[in-house]
UniProtKB/TrEMBL annotation:
NCBIfam families: IV_pilin_GFxxxE (TIGR02532), type_IV_pilV (TIGR02523)
Keywords: Membrane, Transmembrane, Transmembrane helix
Organism superkingdom: Bacteria
InterPro entries: N_methyl_site (IPR012902), Pilus_4_PilV (IPR013362)
Lineage: Bacteria, Pseudomonadati, Pseudomonadota, Gammaproteobacteria, Alteromonadales
Name under which the protein is recorded: Type IV pilus modification protein PilV
First and last residue of the signal peptide: none
Pfam families membership: N_methyl (PF07963)
Length: 188
């Protein structure tokens, strides 16, 4: 008796299902790794934006350049007056809307809030900034400015400031999830 076998046996179907599931798990893991990498890249871009933002604010308020130096981790209190730039309205000292010092205070407060995500909220929770950022500004010489921003990354890799100079190393808390971005410029 010769019988012809048509179709697949149950064992063949199970083996092919196992191979398919293993492949799908691999694709799913690849997707997770890509999402994490994309988020890390986004955080780096945000840090770059925040560093350039404070440098531009400092350029607009050169007379207070030394006053911008310090470490900022989100604990500045809101100034009594909000100022985007120091304006003189109507000429003379009687028409001053914001002094340079008030503008500096507003710049630093507003900058800290942006880094902490206050510009983007969901259900009163800040979600748009960096994860536990710390920013350090060093002003020296004739307008030499170093801005360093550190934040917490998604996974442990290495300390992002480990091979940097002492000023950048001292910015933020040292750990294997710390990421660092710094920019050195001159404001004249």
């Amino acid at each position: 008796m010769n019988r012809k076998q048509n179709g697949f046996s149950l064992v063949e179907v199970l083996v092919s299902m196992v191979i398919l599931v293993i492949g799908l798990i691999g694709v799913f893991n690849l997707h997770i790794v890509a999402k994490r990498g994309s988020f890390e890249s986004f955080q780096q871009t945000q840090a770059s934006y925040f560093a350039i933002d404070i440098i531009n604010r400092m350029k607009l308020n050169r007379s207070q350049l030394a006053g911008y130096a310090g470490t900022y981790a989100g604990n500045l209190s809101e100034p009594s007056q909000s100022c985007d730039v120091a304006l003189i309205v109507g000429g003379g000292s009687g028409g001053i809307v914001c002094t340079n010092i008030e503008t500096r205070s507003w710049d630093l407060y507003n900058w800290e809030q942006l880094m902490n995500g206050a510009g983007e909220t969901k259900n009163t929770r800040s979600i748009g900034g960096l994860d536990t950022p710390t920013a350090c500004i060093q002003v020296s010489g004739a307008g030499d400015v170093l801005v360093a921003i550190t934040w917490r990354g998604i996974r442990e890799v290495s300390d992002g400031a480990e091979n940097s100079d002492d000023f950048i190393k001292s910015c933020g808390t040292s750990n294997k999830r710390r990421r660092a971005y710094s920019i050195n410029t001159v404001i004249i």
